[in-house]
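User: Can you predict the 3D structure for this chain?
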Amino acid sequence: MVIIMGTIFFLSHQSGDTLQLPTFPGADKLAHMTAYGVLALTVLWFYGDKGLKNPVRNALVAVLFCLFYGISDEFHQSFIAFRDVSIYDLLADTAGALCSSLVWLVNPALQQKILSFQNGLLSRFQSP
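Assistant: Here is the predicted structure, written as structure tokens:
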């Protein structure tokens, strides 16, 4: 989660004239949706099996977490050269988080994959 947040912060800290995005329409909004969709999944991953006890609440928390991080990101961008605050970017951030959270919510197989991945990582760091 911290790595994704750091990557978003790093990218938003680039001045607008140095950031290279694909040229098709909406590429920046797709990038926002993707980044915040991944961030929402990492928030859900953070909950682990505790997240499966109340999945609707945890999906809502993930979306709200991403919304508030998106607000802080837009505020941060207001201090960067050639960047500006955009409500449309914030909407794309929230839409990405909402889409990922909904896919996670209605897909028990994805929930189990995320949980088993987390358990696999944790077992590597625990002593025998």
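The two ends are 27 Å apart (CA to CA). The first helix runs from residue 2 to 12.
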